[in-house]
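Protein fold
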Amino acid sequence: MYRILVVEDDVKIADKLRSSMMKYDFSVTVVEDFSQVLDTFLETEPHLVLLDVNLPKFDGFYWCRQIRAKSLCPIIFISARDGQMDQVMALENGADDYITKPFDMEIVMAKIRSQLRRAVGAYSSGREQERSIEYAGLVLYPERFMASYRGTSTDFTQKETDLLTMLMEKGGRVVSRERLLDMMWEDQHFIDDNTLNVYITRVRKKLRELGAEAGIETVRGAGYRIAAEEEPPV
């Protein structure tokens, strides 16, 4: 049974989310003490977190960073704040998706199932069969959401790993924006066009911090590719 943690201070919305998810046989925990969100997360070890932005004590961006520092489990924001910058901030702080209120429960459930399919698929892979992808000295371990270069390693979020996996598997060939969106988000109709740009920027930054020769190159009018030497972003 999948465990879901709901961090939502509106009691009616929290109850709606809990009752709806329980119908699908999810085990649902709703946070009650908003000063102890991380402690509740560590105690329940959820497979996925639903997180509001406006919360007592600290906002959702803060708790997203705290959770992401401990875990790579999927985090979906559900918020009444529908501005593009709020969505960008959520992604930059480690979220995997963003849903605006008022929401359709079927869309929420579709996004939850989509994230769980990806996360559980990654977690269920045995370490003895662990896959690695190598390009220009950069080694990516998709099941661990981690990459290494010359003895230095760094962690990636699930979506960042999905992006880097697709580019590295192509071995320098161009992958279109449409293909990346389709592979990373099954329901890309609800994804803002700037979302992919945010992930590209985040992965580029982490590759630079690793000192990797491989970088993400923008191919104008075509898409992106992993290249041995990163050119300045277009």
Observations:
- The first strand starts at residue 3 and ends at 7.
- The chain is about 40% helix and 20% strand.
